[in-house]
Amino acid sequence: MVLISLLSFGVFLGYIGRTSAGICRPSLIEWLITSFLLFAGSIIITGYCLSALDLTGSTWAWAIAVFIPPTILSFVFSKITPQTTAFSPLKMVISRWHAAQRWYVSGTVYLRFLFGIMILSVAIIGITNLLLVLFTVPNEWDSMTGHLNRVIQYIQRGTMAHFGGTNWNIDTYPKSVCTIQIYSYLITGKFENAFKLIHHLSYWITLVAVFGIAQRITKNRLNASFFCALAFALFLDFLMQAVTTETDIVLAAYLSCLLYFLFTYRVTYENRYLYLAALSFGIVYGHKVTFTLLLPSVFVVMIYTVFLQKGKGQKKENVILGINWTAIFKLGIAIVVCFCLWTLPTGYVKNIQVFGHPIGPPTSLKHQSIERATSNGGYRNLFEQGSRNVVRYAYDFVNLDGLRNVKIGQDINRGMRIPLVWLEDKLRMRLDETTEFSIVPFSFERRFEFFNGNPYWGIFGFALVFPLLFLALFGILRSPSHWFLAVALLLHFAALSYSAPYDPWKGRYFQETGVFGVLFLTLLFTHKYSLEKSGYSVALKTYVGVVTVVACISALLAVFLNFRCLPFDALGKKSAFKTERIPMMTFARPDITQAYLKFDELVPDSATVALGTINDDFEYPLYGKHLTRRLIPIRPFEQPLRPIPPGTDYLMYAKSDTIALFRPLPTDIRLGTDTTMKGMIVKGEDYYLRKLK
Predict the structure, then answer these.
(1) Dihedral (C-alpha) 97, 99, 101, 102: value to the nearest 10 degrees?
(2) Closest CA to 76 of 263, 272, 264
(3) What is the mean pLDDT of the chain?
(4) Which is it for strands 650-655 and 323-324: parallel, antiparallel or unpaired?
């Protein structure tokens, strides 16, 4: 069965590649990006259909049905934008490999050094991350409470229908990424680490897309394109998620594909890129609602790439005031169609029916939205607190993340930031004293868990990207494309600052901002003092060289000292490869580890367990090593306690001091929690296990 499903998976990948070759132009970059979109888009829409038929957990249904969407998409594209040039992706891969070798050898000594250390660093990180993906279990907080928890529920129930989970994320988050995780898990013979497939793939596809966008902006300058792609591979918030099941890295991949097609349309004026951009738009909006915060930024890019372009052979009556109305109409219609197919079915409509809002229940909105500021002082207070957040995040960016995982790096980082701390104190901004618009109060010395697990861009961000951004924004470095990108980046920065309270975990949300930001590095190769020129700008070359070396060291330290997933023994912890399943999954809440180990020992893998746990409790580890235990939540988020279903074998519950829904019986087994541990982000409950039959 496993061999057959894996064979089906291989055939599907081949079919996707062949279908993409019939849609895109003869370009390796374009073929890879189009294949990724068809892969994701086909699985997503298949998942919605199988859920309606109660076949979500059927491997056979997935293996067959997943071929239908790409067949339909191939037919549609053949009618609206027929492909006239056939090409072989394999021959193109070989050709581009030889071209890349010639490119590297032809560079100056300086460029060979610069690119050499970047390529070596990315290669080491890539191999390490791949091994971590394949041989370590998922253990991210949101996945333990929500993301992966609901995936197993959907598989066991046979449908992705709303069921009322303990954590509000289970029912409110869009379900598109779940479809890909479910397919990956089932088609690989229920290989648990396949849940990470789409996230790890997103890392590499984003780099491909960034390379392609840089090619369009610089008119095919290889040095600029390679530098952008390799630099983004070293952006810390981005590379850290390549081994996780967090959702932001997938959003960054979809966004980068969307931007690639928009910039490619500006160069080619071919309608196929409007339709592929619309497909990207539908998929990315269906992936996560935070794409809403990117809408102003994407709109700005559309103005530059689509709205203000006349197009080849465009009729005069279709171009009014220099605006390409025909392209706008085609893009708009395509977006509406793709929005209906890939966005609406993902759960937004159901959220409105259940919670009265497309995002979720009022509690979550008040906790994580502008309501937290507007409810106390209106929009004037929102402007004040949001502006304070802008400065907070700006301060967080100016850190040697990765490097400060070691003491010497931390000492250098503190010394570097002394003037910033002094300035904040003199200006009396009260960044760390005002807490009304903060999930966790701002601190100039963020907790180790925050900067270790969720860093920002590292030195590339504050030492190169932002200086170049402001030089382009104020016209000192003239580049129309970068001016629009600067506006887009700042709009997203502002959206993240004003739309929700300050959150020290926010580094991961700036991955999408980084897709815009990394493109400013092309300016190092396109202006008077270019790094390509020999004998010029010695100071600039030295500066960029030092920044790049520090960035490479920081990236390597971020991976090798990633407290959440250590590839080697470090920081007083065992390597993730040698850590047992339960301790690995509960690393963020070590006080509950022993209780969960005891539960795993006492409860058979085939048991049905009613869960009286609370919103922040880790439920995913309780499914067992083979994910075969059936867990039934009886304390849905903000809903009354449900009765224990007949046929349930065990009851596990958390006894809270404030909400005593269950009173322990003399026969209940106390699993407990370690109350001696200090500094927990969330403390574990007192857990009990009751045998029901």
Answers:
(1) 170
(2) 272
(3) 88
(4) unpaired
Residue whose structure tokens are 């541990």 = 677
Residues 399-414 have pLDDT tens digits of 999 999 998 988 898 8
Delimit the domains of the chain by residue range.
Answer: 1-355, 364-529, 581-691
- Going by their DSSP bridges, the two strands 669-672 and 686-691 should be labelled as antiparallel
Instruction: For residue 560, give every residue at least 6 positions away whose Cβ sits within 8 Å of its Cβ, in sequence order, or none.
Output: 128, 566, 567, 568, 570
Q: Quick one: 22 exposed, middle or buried, by C-beta within 10 A (0-12, 13-18, 19+)?
A: middle
pLDDT digits 0-9 by tens, 189-247: 999 999 999 999 999 999 999 999 999 999 888 999 999 999 999 999 999 999 999 99
450-468: b (≥16 Cβ within 10 Å) or e: bbbbbbbbbbbbbbbbbeb
| Exposed/middle/buried for residue 15 (C-beta within 10 Å: 0-12, 13-18, 19+) | middle
Q: How far apart are alpha carbons 264 and 31 in whole angstroms?
A: 13
Ranking 270-279, 345-354, 485-494 by mean pLDDT, the lowest is 345-354
Exposure string (b/e) for 632-671, b if CB count within 10 Å is 16 or more? bbbbbbeeeeeeeeeebbbbbbbbeeeeeebeeeeebbeb
Per-residue CA distances from 414 to 411, 499, 502 (Å): 5, 30, 22
Indicate the SS3 state at residue 90.
Answer: helix
- Per-residue pLDDT band at 397 (split at 50, 70, 90): very high
* Closest listed residue to residue 217, CA positions, set 255, 249, 259: 259
Asked if 512 and 285 count as a contact pair (C-beta separation under 8 A), the reply is no
Question: Can you tell me the distance from the alpha carbon of 441 to that of 254, in angstroms, rounded to the nearest whole number?
Answer: 32
- What is the C-alpha to C-alpha distance for residues 86 and 273, in angstroms, rounded to an integer? 18
Q: Do the bridges between strand 650-655 and strand 686-691 make them parallel or antiparallel, or are there none, so unpaired?
A: antiparallel
Cβ atoms within 10 Å, residue 48: 19
Hey, what are 621's tokens?
């580890």
Q: What is the pTM of this model?
A: 0.94
Identify any residues that bridge with 438 across adjacent strands, giving them in sequence order: 502
* Distance of alpha carbon 526 from alpha carbon 522, whole angstroms: 7
Closest CA to 361 of 162, 580, 105, 148: 162
Token pair 């409007």 in the structure block, residue: 274
